[in-house]
Target: Regulator of G protein signaling 18
Amino acid sequence: METSLVFFPQLNMCESKEKAFFKLIHGSGKEETSKEAKIRAKEKRNRLSLLVQKPEFHEETHSSRSGHLAKETRVSPEEAVIWGESFDKLLSHKDGLKTFTTFLKTEFSEENIEFWIACEDFKKSKDPQQIIVKAKAIYEKFIQNDAPQEVNLDFHTKEVITKSITQPTLHSFDAAQSRVYQLMEQDSYTRFLKSDIYLDLTEGRPQRPTNLRRRSRSFTCTEFQDVKSDVAIWL
Model:
């Protein structure tokens, strides 16, 4: 019997920062076709959309996430009160941003704040190649149709970004970032100020598991995606 030898290509241990960035932003090192990705995303949405209709699912998810916040966040009532003065003051405070992100997760709309954070980081880019790499990553994750964490933008805004993505500038996402900021300020921020997560902080009460009621939103176009939040990679 003949024995066949199988040779494996040598791993490239000198992977460029650009490739590493793409692996991090997309959350997987595996390559897959656009068609396969869309089919997989659709299947996940269908499964999760059935699951989230069950009340016990919401209670467990909201409680665990709120409980996680209670263990990590140590904010004085004075600091929390400042967050209520304006949305900008909330986002400019490290703990405020973290607390608001946790709140958005209970509403399944954290893609909005993650997109905003990504844009803030993008605007600090100086190297031309880095601008191109990050712009493409942001576009594929948040902007393009069926993106894993697609944010809700009007057709004109998306069209302008799509046409300019091959030659991006530091201002390529300004209009989209402003739109998402306004949506969060007018919608989620208002509910955040009325939430137990926020009120417990302002009144100095121990954080407790809070079952927030989900309500319809104008935010996400492809919600309930099985994608792990990775806000930290933009900080």
Summary: The chain has a mean pLDDT of 75.
